[in-house]
Give the backbone structure.
Amino acid sequence: MFDLYQLSDEHLAIREAVREVCDAKVAPNAAEADENSEFPQASFDALRASDFHAPHIPEEYGGAGADALATAIVIEEVARACASSSLIPAVNKLGTMPLLLSGSADLKRRYLPRVASGEGMFSYCLSEPEAGSDAAAMTTRAIYDNGHYVLNGVKRWITNAGVSDFYTVFAVTEPGIGAKGISAFVVEKSDPGVSFGAPEKKLGIKGSPTREVYLDQVRIPADRMIGEPGTGFASAMRTLDHTRVTIAAQAVGIAQGALDAALAYVKERKQFGKPIADFQGVQFMLADMGMRLTAARELTYAAAARSERGDADLTYFGAAAKCFASDVAMAITTDAVQLLGGYGYTKDFPLERMMRDAKITQIYEGTNQVQRIVMARQLLKGVI
Ligand code: CAA
């Protein structure tokens, strides 16, 4: 009769199942993927074998049909083991969300089963060298020509570029009218004229390739447009409303991984004749880390529930969860490094990697400054 405000047995079972896979088959590859800046193929294979590589794809397209909360839990658990690997389910959701929200039945039928089966991943191409926070300032152009569109431009900071087979590309179809002149398309890696830049040399998430995507006279059938002409920017923003929740989940997972490692260490490490966990100064740090993490997780799950229901306040909740959880992940991973002292600063422990990985969650899918713009606009509109 009453909502008891707790995870369902199904959600708890999903967490247990993903954790088992990640402890056994994802965590062991994390340090190497980071060290060599290599896509963790073995982790991808393990996630695909257990259907956690794109859990959000609905059952009608051959997917696992996980709801937004279950998908967040999957991403959180993968991130606890390896942040780079968590971008596999996260970016598959990001890339396909415009299709799910606005694609034609035919386009969904053509592409979603291939992501569900693991045949290909889907990346999201919004940003450009001169259009980051100001996404509507993009210049990539799509010109209609006899039943086709011809795309030209450069997309930058594209997660999993080169590894993914499919790309949602946002491009200007009607110049001079800003956001209303942008449309979305499905582009395939194999389309003639598609190529990739060198992998970016990044601070963290090194196992997830980030590259430029070059579109040089890429001619695609007009039925690859997602939704109506001019609706691309709104689709991009609606997508981010949903997927900022997944970045919040990623941040929660990274923070949990760091807290787990710090808790294990402070119980073992002895100084001044006793485990450092016995010192109140250390306990206060642990308490703050736990408290912040709990709050971030609750906000993330509340946002995931709104994503699943499509509530009007999702825009606010998605931004709030992403902003809060990523700031928490940065603080917790930094404190975890501090608790391990000199050891935390070395690659003998995973904390320095987690701290570097946490940083990106404050930047991508909209900087935390952009999240505050989004939240403030919603507050001023009276949506909250
Ligand atoms: N839902 C539906 N429509 C929306 C919307 C939303 N959440 N947000 C905006 N729109 C619509 C608006 O209604 C408006 O249309 P109308 O004029 O008809 O009302 C139109 O889009 C333009 O909106 P704004 O005027 O608000 O646009 P803006 O230019 O002021 O930009 C912004 C707003 C919030 C700053 C936006 O540009 C933004 O979010 N920037 C950050 C971009 C971003 O997050 N990039 C991340 C890249 S992806 C990534 O990082 C992935 C990865 O690697 C993992």
About this structure: The two ends are 27 Å apart (CA to CA). The chain has eleven helices and ten strands.
